[in-house]
């Protein structure tokens, strides 16, 4: 960078008759050096600001990815902590339950396992605590003089049935199903109309567990 001051002169002769000539005088050297250094510093500052802005953007992106990873880890931990499983039996002594004139919800009073507390021994109904896929089984034992029939329901929908007609000996039956449930969905068993099952502690059972959360 050149810094200077140009002085203009008249071409007319002065009073003494001599002619003045044009003259260029340089500015102070220290000032020129300062201006040059200032320009270079501004360029460096602009470059630093650009790099800083890019670094801030990358930092925000990294923080967002880290937050997303933390949320995924927390979700996985919550899923691992959610344990739901139960196993029950009729538990009403050595006698048959039924027959009744209409389908009747069975209450399995003997609770073998009820991790998560989703099964109610007072109503016989399992209520899903979390969304997910669950597995349920139903089994029964009954004397052959009367048909045996169990019906597994999800809310108001019939899912699967196990059934046996009159026979000379004892009857046994069972069935199972995977069900995708939402929170507060209900699963329960009904005794089919005009059928019966054995009500002891070990023969007629209703069980289920959470396979995976959704």
TrEMBL record:
Keyword set includes Coiled coil: yes
Record field: transmembrane: none
One Pfam family it belongs to: C1q
PROSITE patterns: C1Q
Classification via Gene3D superfamilies: 2.60.120.40
Span of domain C1q: 79-214
UniProt entry tagged with the keyword Coiled coil: yes
Coiled coil start-end: 45-79
Signal peptide as annotated in the record: none
Entry keyword set: Coiled coil, Secreted, Signal
Cellular component terms per the entry's GO annotation: extracellular region
Subcellular location per the Swiss-Prot or TrEMBL entry: Secreted
PANTHER family: CEREBELLIN 13-RELATED, CEREBELLIN-RELATED
Stated name of the protein: C1q domain-containing protein
Organism: Perca fluviatilis
Lineage of producing organism: Eukaryota, Metazoa, Chordata, Craniata, Vertebrata
């Amino acid at each position: 960078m050149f810094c200077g001051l140009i002085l203009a002169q008249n071409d007319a002769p002065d009073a003494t008759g001599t002619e003045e000539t044009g003259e260029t005088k340089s500015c102070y050297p220290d000032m020129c050096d300062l201006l040059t250094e200032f320009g270079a510093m501004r360029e460096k500052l602009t470059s630093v600001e650009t790099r800083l802005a890019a670094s801030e953007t990358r930092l925000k992106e990294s923080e967002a990815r880290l937050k997303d990873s933390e949320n995924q880890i927390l979700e996985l931990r919550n899923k691992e902590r959610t344990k739901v499983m139960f196993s029950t039996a009729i538990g009403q002594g050595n006698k048959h339950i039924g027959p009744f004139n209409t389908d009747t919800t069975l209450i399995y009073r003997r609770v073998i396992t009820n991790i998560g507390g989703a099964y109610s021994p007072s109503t016989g109904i399992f209520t899903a605590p979390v969304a997910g896929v669950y597995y349920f089984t139903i089994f029964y034992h009954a004397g052959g003089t009367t048909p045996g029939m169990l019906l597994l329901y999800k809310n108001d929908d019939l899912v699967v049935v196990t059934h046996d007609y009159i026979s000379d000996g004892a009857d046994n039956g069972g069935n199972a199903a995977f069900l995708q449930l939402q929170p507060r969905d209900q699963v329960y068993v009904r005794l089919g109309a005009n059928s019966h099952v054995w009500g002891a502690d070990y023969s007629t059972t209703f069980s289920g567990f959470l396979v995976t959360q959704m």
